[in-house]
Amino acid sequence: MAVHRVAVLVLEGVTPLDLAIPTQVFATRAETPYAMTVCSLTPRVTTTVGLDLVVSGGLEQVRAADTVIVPGFEPPLVPPPAPVLDALAEARDRGRRVVSICTGAFALAAAGVLDGLHATTHWQHIEDLEREFPAVRVDRDVLYVDEGNVLTSAGVCCGIDLCLHIVRRDLGAVVANQLARGLVAAPHRDGGQAQFVPAPVAVAGDASLAATRAWVLERLDQPLTLAVLARHAGMSQRSFMRRFAEETGTTPLQWLAKARLGLARELLETTGHSVDRVARECGLGTAANLRLHFRRTLNTTPTAYRRTFTR
């Protein structure tokens, strides 16, 4: 695989957890092509917790990168220095991928990278982003937004979702799921369309339906109706739907469809099964139905997907 250069651009007042996410996901590994460098305008950067970071890379590495990632920083309403904004705008203009985690979206917005695009940030700063940057189409209550070469995430853990989404886009479901297992993270949370992926934020809950979701994932090839899922959880269908939405931010049937599509992607990447067999084993029934789901969700076909990601 050709080397893909990732520059993690650290700003003054960086949030350490936001910084840790991309450096962990895009660290150099034999199974991925990423070569990651932490960069900043100055060799030393102070974090939000008072720790100083010594950074080896500069803006020249940002300009040479294929993907530039800006972690969250405080206070977000203080714009980064002009050379940083220029480097971000230049990356966008050259067609490079530009990514923000949490309040890193404010740096992208200040550089004009988000003008006319959908974007998101931490829920506590949504109104500030809307007020200060009216050219940005701010989306509330989403995990992340994928606008092709410009991607933004909500707070902290949503940065993990976004980074794993990028890996899945680049390298397929198998590699992304392997990284997720190493991080002990949910393998994939998304929704929407191929170039614009809004995913609802889950409401905090006690995850009482986790056992039912795990049970379903072992039986995706079987007929699974709302009644079957509610019966396994020991609830009425109405109570089950309400609790499921509280815990996952989506409906049981939408979640099930995405789980089946995820299994189909793994089977296409790792087996030589026919499209008909893949459709049966993931519970989507027929090749025609599988193609319909791929077209609607990924804007491609199962055959083209397999050709792209089979190793």
UniProtKB/TrEMBL annotation:
GO terms for molecular function: DNA-binding transcription factor activity; sequence-specific DNA binding. PROSITE patterns: HTH_ARAC_FAMILY_1, HTH_ARAC_FAMILY_2. This is AraC family transcriptional regulator. PANTHER family: ARAC-FAMILY TRANSCRIPTIONAL REGULATOR, HTH-TYPE TRANSCRIPTIONAL REGULATOR RV1931C. SUPFAM superfamilies: Class I glutamine amidotransferase-like, Homeodomain-like. The keyword DNA-binding applies. Residues 210-308 form the HTH araC/xylS-type domain. Keywords: DNA-binding, Transcription, Transcription regulation. It comes from the Bacteria. SMART domains: HTH_ARAC (SM00342).
